[in-house]
Amino acid sequence: MITVAVLGAAGRMGTHVVNAVGAAPDLELVAALDHSDDVAQAARAGAQVAVDFTVPTATEANVHALIDLGINAVVGTTGWTEESLLRVEEHLRERPELGVLIAPNFALSAVLSMRFAAAAARYFESVEVVELHHPDKVDAPSGTAVHTARGIAAARAAAGIAASPDATTHDPDGARGAVIDGVHVHAVRLRGLVAHEEVLLGNPGEQLTIRTDSFDRVSFMPGVLLGVREVVRRPGLAVGLDSYMDL
Ligand SMILES: NC(=O)c1ccc[n+]([C@@H]2O[C@H](COP(=O)([O-])OP(=O)(O)OC[C@H]3O[C@@H](n4cnc5c(N)ncnc54)[C@H](O)[C@@H]3O)[C@@H](O)[C@H]2O)c1
Ligand SMILES: O=C(O)C1=N[C@H](C(=O)O)CCC1
């Protein structure tokens, strides 16, 4: 039995995680904490793993607190930068027995989309990412889109591919979107959506579209539970659920 605490337990994702952990025969929910609770309660309740679905402004501090408490962490919250990931990696050297998984998206379709996009990136002249989410989301672009763009950019750089062609010289309102490692990323916020992303790859006379749709937050739960089960036997920092999958 793996004992689990949930941070952000009252939120949209946290509520689903509480239910999914509660329904799993090999997991025991020992703490359901939200913003007014002390993270140390997770240790007092005997948690081996804490799942964090909080807010980008809180998640890094939560992870450092969990490491100090000797608790493995599975993190779905977005907002991570190269610098904040490095700080966690550094902190984990003090606790080499602990594992931390930080994954921008736990849905299988999204994990595969990111992999497929990176694999396809070097075969196309142009690439852009469009992410589409519910309007209650506080961050843009999405963590998934940032991770997707970085994977595409790394694959193109490794293959020596030039920047996507773009004649734009006048864009006073930012219509061309954000630029992540040279890849344009566009964010849509629309009532009715949950979490969606399209990667558009273009060549003369052809286009490849890679699309992932999470219509319901249940889509994230198998990946979260996989993370909880695996993190206890995979010390160190892992970024992206694909690192726990045999892809
Ligand atoms: N990785 C994935 O697969 C995935 C999927 C969906 C959402 N997300 C990300 O998860 C995060 C949460 O999304 P959501 O839709 O559940 O948001 P939400 O606003 O519904 O929930 C966040 C919860 O965290 C709580 N909270 C805030 N600060 C806290 C703190 N310091 N300690 C404990 N709890 C705290 C809030 O009170 C709230 O209940 C976002 O960053 C989102 O982008 C990731
Ligand atoms: O609903 C959200 O918020 C989501 N956030 C993640 C992101 O920013 O990529 C994953 C998808 C849902």
UniProtKB/TrEMBL annotation:
Keywords: Amino-acid biosynthesis, Cytoplasm, Diaminopimelate biosynthesis, Lysine biosynthesis, NAD, NADP, Oxidoreductase. Pfam families: DapB_C (PF05173), DapB_N (PF01113). (S)-2,3,4,5-tetrahydrodipicolinate binds at H134, G143, T144. It catalyses: (S)-2,3,4,5-tetrahydrodipicolinate + NADP(+) + H2O = (2S,4S)-4-hydroxy-2,3,4,5-tetrahydrodipicolinate + NADPH + H(+); (S)-2,3,4,5-tetrahydrodipicolinate + NAD(+) + H2O = (2S,4S)-4-hydroxy-2,3,4,5-tetrahydrodipicolinate + NADH + H(+). The lineage of its organism: Bacteria, Bacillati, Actinomycetota, Actinomycetes, Micrococcales. GO terms for cellular component: cytosol. Gene3D superfamilies: Dihydrodipicolinate Reductase, domain 2, NAD(P)-binding Rossmann-like Domain. This is 4-hydroxy-tetrahydrodipicolinate reductase. NAD(+) binds at G8, A9, A10, G11, R12, M13, D34, G76, T77, T78, A103, P104, N105, F106. The keyword Amino-acid biosynthesis applies. It is found in: Cytoplasm.
